[in-house]
Amino acid sequence: MQADVKLTAEQVMEARHSVRKYDPNAEIPREELNEILRLAATAPSSWNLQHWRFIVVTDRAKKEQLLPIAYGQQQVVDAYATIIVLGDLEADKSARPVYDDALAKGYVTEQVRETLINQIEETYRNNPQIGRDEAIRNASLAAMQLMLAAKAKGYDTCPMLGFDSNALIQALNIPPRYIPVMMITVGKASVPARPTARFGLDQLVIENSF
């Protein structure tokens, strides 16, 4: 598939498969990679707090450093980029910047701004688990959108949960505010993804109630 081929949303969803073998010589122009990241960042998030951050690893030596952390999965080295998707455990701290900007642009009123900021701060203060839950949930939405954006531009991806989270935090100096949610390799496949079988809707969909 060429990067300039335009696919419909349906075609992108059906064409995306997890690729584990990449062409190590294939590169992604930085402007295209940035556009993939920009599209990923348009994902929805609770209160629009945008809980995701992306560490983009393209340096060969740094990718080699990730190899043992990812339990020897060669794709982290051979893919053009290995992207670590982080979730913000303290996304409530983004409430004021988000809603100050929204107020300045006329998207919300002063009253709505204050109501939402108070709601966010109270929720995070009273529910210790909410920070972790929201970090993982919302960063995962951005991760899926990143993979679809990459496929739309002709690139392949693989979401990875098989890595040593503590070692990754140490290796990349990740602050305690952020939690690694997943790695995503991005590049050009050297071997097509293997086919997968999917459940039919009769096994997946429950109408109205169990």
Walkthrough of the structure:
The protein is of the alpha+beta class. The protein has a domain at 9-89 and 132-193: NADH Oxidase (3-Layer(aba) Sandwich), CATH 3.40.109.10. It contains 9 helices and 4 strands; from the N terminus they run H-H-E-H-H-E-H-H-H-E-H-E-H. The chain has helices spanning 9-15, 30-40, 60-69, 75-78, 95-104, 110-126, 130-152, 165-171, 201-204; strands at residues 52-57, 81-88, 156-160, 178-187. The protein has a 4-stranded antiparallel beta sheet with strand order 1-2-4-3. Helix 1 packs across helix 7 (130-152) and helix 5 (95-104) runs antiparallel to helix 6 (110-126). It is globular, with a radius of gyration of 19 Å. The protein starts with 8 loop residues before the first helix and ends in a 6-residue tail after the last helix. 33% of the residues are buried. The mean pLDDT is 96.
